Structures are given as C-alpha cells and as structure tokens.
Amino acid sequence: MKVPCPTCAKTLAWSKDNPFRPFCSERCKLIDLGAWAAEEHSIPGESEDEPGIPFDFNPPDETH
Ligand SMILES: [Zn+2]
Fold first, then answer.
1. What residue ranges in 10-63 does DSSP mark as E strands?
2. Looking at the domain that runs over 2-37, which CATH code has it been given?
3. Could you tell me the distance, in angstroms and rounded to a whole number, from the CA of residue 11 to the centre of ligand 1?
4. First-last CA distance in the chain
5. At residue 38, what are phi and psi to the nearest 5 degrees?
6. Which residues pair with 52 in a beta bridge?
7. How far apart are CA 28 and CA 30, in angstroms?
8. For the whole prediction, is pTM greater than 0.90?
9. Cβ–Cβ < 8 Å for 23, 36
10. How far apart are the C-alpha atoms of 3 and 28, rounded to whole Å?
C-alpha cells in the first residue's frame, strides 16, 4: 500500500516499519505537527484590534 506524505506529498509505502507513517520521515511529521500547533496558537482576528496608538494620535507639541 502506497500513501502520499501529507506534508511533502512524496509517495511512501505504508509499513509498520515506518514509525512516522503516514509521513515519510520524522521531519515531515514534525512539520505537520508544528503547523497544526501554530494554527492553534494564532486566533484569526485577535490581533486586528489590539489597543495601541490611534490613527489620529498627535505627538506632544514640539515647536521649533
Ligand atoms: Zn514527507
């Protein structure tokens, strides 16, 4: 049985000897897990309205 690696799409043999299946390698497994973790940590839209300096902020009066 051949399956494509979810990370790099490389075809690999589904084998009990492959501890990283369905990935082709440990690297691809870690990449996939890392991508998943990154998505978990970044909430879409959360950083859009962070409190900060408003657009019409004027710096302190500095007359030269
Ligand atoms: Zn791979």
1. 11-13
2. 3.30.50.10
3. 8
4. 77
5. -65, -40
6. none
7. 5
8. no
9. no
10. 14
How far is ligand 1, taken at its centre, from the CA of residue 2, in Å? 13
25 secondary structure, DSSP code: S
35, 21 Cβ separation under 8 angstroms: no
Q: What is the CA(17)–ligand 1 centre distance, in A? A: 16
Residue 43 has pLDDT above 60, yes or no: no
What's the pLDDT at 29? 93
8 Å CB contact between 8 and 27: no
**Token pair recorded at residue 30:** 């870690």
The pair of structure tokens assigned to 26 is 């440990």
Domain edges within the chain: 2-37
